[in-house]
């Protein structure tokens, strides 16, 4: 059964709109900083921290992409952007989806990525287990 987590951009977030290309840039930044950590430690931590390739299908262009693993203990994670309908004003969000057949490794990495994205954007994170984490200053 698939599971979803959401990173919502609230009024206190760093930005109020996000595109799929900006999300990809955040993942590239994550890969870059973990690679630098690995070089400081003297081992290939970057490959362990981000064992995925970003792949985009033509029918999902501009809306979603997936992270496909290079390793056997991981499969893939889907990442998309959309706006929450029914709210005024609409709330943009990033959706992280673990499709059917995901591994424990995928879920661990997805949680890690969700927290990283929420922290970078000062957003509200709705985790896979339904709990909410606030990465923005609350009044």
TrEMBL record:
It comes from Fictibacillus fluitans. Pfam families: DUF1885. This is DUF1885 family protein. Coiled coil: none annotated. InterPro entries: DUF1885, Rbstp2229-like_sf.
